[in-house]
Design a protein that fits this description.
EAL_dom, Biofilm_reg_signaling, Rev_trsase/Diguanyl_cyclase, Diguanylate cyclase, alpha+beta, 8-stranded mixed beta barrel
Length: 664
């Protein structure tokens, strides 16, 4: 378009503008280029010609703040025909030049351009120039308000975030209470600061707002200088961190922290409203099998879907949480909460038991639920959780896929078990567990050829206790390893003592499953042999069938290491598990002990025992029958080639001294 038509709105002509000594140029804000400049304007920009200046792409070295400021000018030109006089620093050919420039809008072909008139050059000290530039480029929102809360000045960052044109100080805040607090702080101390939600062009944001009383440099009137920093991202990060601290990452349900921060107030309010409250502990039965067989990814997927099923069953006054692993918690309140918990628990059991498809398989797991009802009007969350946990374990003991309510008897039993655990631990430290020895008799000769070492507890108050009273507790509480070690040490020492007296006796010792899978077992046995002087070939370690079911490389490695030490290996209680003699051939075994239950059933069901004895003869394994109590049983075993027996027909387990007396 000819420049004369562009400038016709001024009523002048091109020659007159060209003759002006003041630098004048027209800037195309949209394209970031100079549209036209007079000769003085070319000199300001250090351009040899208008064409050369028009070819410059000003966007290449234009900061975001300057581009933002120019866009704001353009909006003001469009909206209100504004005119500005400001100090600007230009960078012609990379050299700074400070000018006082008057800006106004000019429309060309329907687009708004900017007419720029440089009124004079300015020389300011470096600190002033840099402070002006900093105010222009900073992302901090700076606003100067007059005494009535109207904006006297906004820096580009502040102008960019104004939600509504003409917005005052008070309207800037989402909550009027924040404005009141800030204003009162300034009135009292001259300055104030707070975190507040404010209205911006991008919607509601969190800002750190600082306000300080001052005077307007133009009018001398009281004013307020306000600076704001957007901390919305920080607030979101804090909210996310808080969520993660109080919620389970996998299911999104509240975790143990969330129970106290989110769910506990819900129960407390229910009690204040006159309702009853209850907790339900939910534990998935045999969930470990899913992880072991399908992997943890499938296990996680099952937990997510189970959590979804659980939440889908809950009503308005029922909240769910995940305690960890495969344990969930439900809080509920109702006028008759026990009845409601019973009904909800049955629905949960039914819903969770429905199989789900994982890795192309239909996987089903049941659940065990324990319920604790708050008694009275005082809420003790820790006690209720402990009671619900006890009831849940009672449901597991009752056969799983069941629901049980807490009763005082459960707590009494738990306290008794805890006392027994402590007593066992003390007994192990004090050496109260001793080995008793049940004779092993050669069937052909009737001579005692060995003994099985069996644990007994010589309790200082309760007398001699049998294994059934302490072995299960030791297994549950991780003390069976130490118990097994102590009995093994005593058995090895006793074998050495008997040998020193000229008795050629084999001693067998039971190993628990946890002992056998311990990688340090061969080293422990080797050390015990060295310390005791026991003959390795006169020490037999008994393992159960369940230990062999995995038939993996670690099992084979452990058995071979024990056999390499010279020890004998026996399978104890054979026939009660799921093993078969076909795969037993691959293991370096020396003996097989026929379980006492088969011996007791010889009169009614001899077939299985007949099969066991036949296969043992074929495999060349030494047979030891347990629990022999009658001469008829002994005769039957003798006819089938069984080599040894033990049982009450000969003797119960005896102390080492009694055993020696039995021999002589």
């Amino acid at each position: 378009m000819p420049i004369r038509s562009v400038l016709s709105w001024q009523g002048g002509d091109l020659e007159l503008l060209e003759a002006l000594s003041l630098p004048v140029w027209i800037f195309d804000i949209d394209h970031k280029r100079v549209f036209w400049a007079n000769e003085a304007g070319l000199q300001v920009w250090g351009a040899a010609s208008l064409l050369e200046l028009q070819a410059r792409d000003m966007s290449q070295d234009m900061s975001v703040s300057v581009a933002q400021r120019l866009a704001q000018y353009q909006q003001d030109f469009e909206r209100e025909g504004a005119c500005f006089v400001e100090s600007w620093t230009l960078y012609p050919n990379g050299r700074p030049s400070v000018l006082k420039v008057k800006f106004r809008g000019i429309r060309v072909n329907g687009r708004m351009l900017m007419f720029c008139e440089a009124q004079n050059s300015l020389s300011a000290d470096p600190a002033s120039l840099r402070s002006t530039e900093a105010l222009l480029h900073t992302s901090v929102l700076i606003t100067l308000y007059d005494g009535n809360g109207g904006a006297l000045y906004r820096n580009p960052a502040s102008r960019e975030q104004v939600a509504v044109a003409g917005e005052g100080w008070r309207q800037h805040f989402v909550h009027d209470s924040d404005w009141q607090q800030l204003r009162q702080g300034v009135a009292a101390c001259g300055e104030s600061r707070l975190l507040a939600r404010v209205n911006t062009r991008e919607g509601m944001r969190w800002h750190e707002v600082s306000a300080r009383a001052c005077r307007d440099a133009v009018t001398g009137q009281d004013a307020l200088l306000v600076s704001e920093v957007d901390i919305t991202d920080l607030k979101h990060a804090e909210a996310r961190a808080s969520f993660l601290a109080n919620h389970d990452v996998l299911t999104g349900l509240p975790n143990r922290n969330g129970i106290r921060s989110e769910l506990l107030p819900h129960l407390q309010q229910a009690l204040r409203n006159g309702r009853q409250v209850a907790l339900m502990f939910i534990d998935l039965d045999r969930f470990k099998n899913v992880n072991d067989s399908l992997g943890h990814a499938c296990g996680d997927e099952l937990l997510i879907r189970m959590a979804g099923r659980l939440v889908g069953l809950l009503g308005h006054d029922e909240k769910a949480a995940r305690l960890g692993g495969d344990e969930f918690l439900v809080m509920l309140s109702a006028p008759q909460v026990a009845e409601r918990a019973e009904a909800l628990g049955r629905r949960i059991l039914q819903a969770l038991a429905v199989p789900m498809r994982l890795e192309g398989m239909d996987v089903g797991v049941s659940a065990s639920i324990g319920v604790s009802v708050c008694e009275g009007r005082t809420l003790d969350l820790e006690q209720m959780m402990r009671h619900a946990d006890l009831a849940m374990y009672a449901a597991k003991d009752a056969g799983r896929n069941n629901l049980m309510f807490f009763t005082p008897a459960l707590e009494a039993r738990s306290q008794a078990q805890l006392a027994l655990e402590n007593d066992i631990r003390r007994g192990l430290e004090q050496g109260e567990f001793i080995a008793y020895f049940q004779p092993r008799v050669d069937i052909a000769s009737g001579q005692v050829v060995g003994a099985e070492a069996l644990a007994r507890w010589r309790h200082p108050l309760r007398g001699l206790l049998m294994p059934d009273s302490f072995i299960p507790i030791c297994e549950d509480c991780g003390m069976v390893m130490e118990l097994g070690r102590q009995i093994l040490v005593q058995a090895a020492r006793q074998q050495r003592l008997w040998r020193d007296r000229g008795l050629d006796l084999l001693v067998s010792v039971n190993l628990s499953a946890s002992q056998f899978v311990d990688p340090g077992l061969p080293g422990l046995v080797e050390q015990i042999l060295a310390d005791s002087g026991c003959q390795p070939d006169k020490l037999e370690l008994e393992i159960t069938e369940s230990v062999l079911l995995g038939h993996d490389e670690q099992t084979m490695h452990t058995l071979q290491a024990l056999r390499a030490l010279g020890l004998r290996i026996a399978v104890d209680d054979f026939g009660t598990g799921y093993s078969n003699l076909a795969y037993l051939q691959r293991y370096p075994l020396t003996s097989l002990k026929i379980d006492r239950s088969f011996i007791a059933d010889l009169d009614d069901k001899p077939a299985i025992t007949e099969l066991i004895t036949t296969l043992c003869r074929m495999m060349g394994l030494n047979m030891v029958a347990e629990g022999v109590e009658t001469e008829a049983q002994l005769a039957w075993l003798a006819e089938r080639g069984c080599q040894e027996y033990q049982g009450y027909l000969c003797s119960p387990a005896l102390s080492a001294q009694e055993f020696l007396q039995r021999l002589f």
